[in-house]
Design a protein that fits this description.
The chain contains 14 helices and 15 strands. The chain is α/β, with parallel strands linked by helices. The strands form 3 sheets. Strands 4-10-9-8-7-5-6 form a 7-stranded mixed sheet, sandwiched between helices. A 4-stranded mixed sheet has the order 1-2-3-13. Strands 11-12-15-14 form a 4-stranded antiparallel sheet, with helices on one face. The structure holds pyridoxal-5'-phosphate.
């Protein structure tokens, strides 16, 4: 291995062994002896270094990362400013426990979130609790909504994903693998039909009527504490709801005293060209959940809500040992500073144009197989079907992902039937690299259909 610093990684593919290579296979054998198979790795290639869009594995292969650890490294791997901020904080203080003796970086992150969350004003301030993971953000959002309303019910949507803790795995649409065998599942959770324009053909208001009718019948509005929605569904396949769907749901929640919680864990933090994706739909949420991209690769999650709701919890009711770790908070500050001071949001739009455009060209070329290209900004996806039907084509997606991996491109599936390829590139990925990635996918589809 050279003595290159991570920043010296050239932003290009370089395949020098088969993938996985011999050193990765060796490591994988070691891992299998000590790590249970429930912790599955999509591509068992062991990564040694990374910068921006490129992963370097232990065999020296350079792999273009179009997943970003599932939307975590939104501003790129080992971003210079994030690394510098985290390193500086590491040398100062790494832990005190905010609920014991607090520190400034936590407060700064809360200030950034209050500033950027839609709806936050001097008259109606928003406050933030910091935790470690997306699932913890969802758990706490539900706790806070229950405390505020005094009601038990949790409404979610079909195709949703909210995490793998006991409560959140009960909220996911997909039972297997996330909840299967781990029961009993949590109760008082209601899974309502969503808006899925490529498949249901419903307008936003009509889809909202269907969702609301279901919840009123099955749950009863007066028993619901909250409705938790991903403005753009992530694991579900980057489903962008039809126009008017989310505003109608938010209005219904307001009219019925139900807390509207936007789970922005995957779609938030600048990925769609606005800080929060819900801004794209003109909706003011009561609570916004952040995690994944918030700290440039370090673990951190935020629950940001209207003060009136957040202030209901008693001292000691909220928190956790590592929640709002100072190093993670320093890294998040570096992310927010780039959002505010550079053209990161415009970059998300650029990626939406180039990546989305190239994918629509693929759709024209493989019109029988690609039923939909969708997404906003740097959150794009392609849905595959069996030719001439709406039947989910899971196999072609698995094969295309496998072929792309062999060529040094890391892709990820999505959707209840894994028939969607989703793209979560770094906001700094060049148009040139995007073109290279799409060419690899084009070749892989061509070879499969050959
Ligand atoms: C990933 C994800 C979660 C869970 O986050 P973890 O950090 O994995 O616990 C929750 N909601 C959404 C929308 C996600 O994409």
């Amino acid at each position: 291995m050279s003595e290159d610093t991570p920043t010296a990684i050239t932003q290009e593919r370089r395949v020098v062994t088969e993938i996985p290579g011999p050193r990765s296979r060796e490591l994988h054998a070691r891992r299998q002896a000590v790590v249970p198979p429930g912790v599955h790795s999509v591509l068992p290639v062991y990564i040694e270094r990374a910068h921006d869009s490129v992963l370097v594995d232990v065999d020296g292969n350079q792999i273009v990362d179009v997943c970003g650890g599932i939307g975590v490294t939104t501003i790129g791997h080992t971003d210079d400013a994030v690394v510098a901020a985290a390193a500086e904080q590491l040398g100062k203080v790494t832990h005190t426990l905010f609920t014991m003796t607090p520190y400034e970086p936590y407060v700064r992150v809360a200030e950034f979130l209050a500033k950027h969350v839609p709806g936050s004003t001097a008259e109606q301030p928003y406050k933030t609790l910091l935790m470690n993971s997306g699932a913890e953000a969802v758990e706490n959002g539900v706790k806070i909504a229950r405390k505020h309303t005094g009601r038990p019910g949790v409404a979610v949507l079909e195709h949703a994903y909210h995490g793998r803790t006991m409560l959140t795995s009960s909220m996911n649409f997909k039972g297997a693998p996330y909840a299967a065998g781990y029961g009993p599942r949590a109760g008082d959770i209601y899974k309502a039909p969503n808006s899925y324009p490529a498949r249901d053909g419903l307008s936003g208001p009509d889809a909202a009527k269907r969702t609301i009718a279901y919840l009123e019948k099955v749950a009863g509005a007066e028993d619901l504490a909250c409705l938790v929605v991903e403005p753009i569904q992530g694991e579900g396949g980057f489903i962008v709801p039809a126009d008017g769907y989310l505003p109608a749901l938010a209005e219904w929640c307001r009219a019925n005293g139900i807390v509207f919680i936007a789970d922005e864990v995957q779609a938030g933090m600048a990925r769609t060209g606005t800080v929060f994706s819900i801004e794209q739909f003109g909706v003011v949420p009561d609570i916004v959940l952040s995690a994944k991209g918030i700290a440039g690769g370090l673990p951190l999650a935020g629950i940001t809500g209207r003060a009136e709701i957040m202030d209901k919890s008693q001292p000691g009711g909220l928190g956790g040992t590592f929640g709002g770790n100072p190093v993670s908070c320093a890294a998040a500050t570096a992310v927010f500073e780039q959002i505010e001071q550079t053209d990161l949001l415009a970059e998300a739009k650029r990626i939406g144009d180039t990546f989305g455009g190239a994918l629509r060209d693929l759709q024209s070329k493989y019109a029988d197989n690609i039923v939909d290209v969708r997404g906003i900004g740097a959150m794009q996806a392609v849905e595959f079907v069996k030719p001439g039907t709406l039947e989910h084509d899971t196999e072609i997606v698995a094969k295309v992902i496998d072929r792309a991996a062999q060529q040094g491109v890391l892709l990820l599936s999505a959707g209840i039937y894994s028939n969607v390829i989703r793209f979560l590139p770094s906001l700094k990925m060049s148009d040139e690299l995007i073109a290279d990635v799409v060419a690899v996918i084009d070749e892989a589809i061509g070879a499969e259909l050959g």
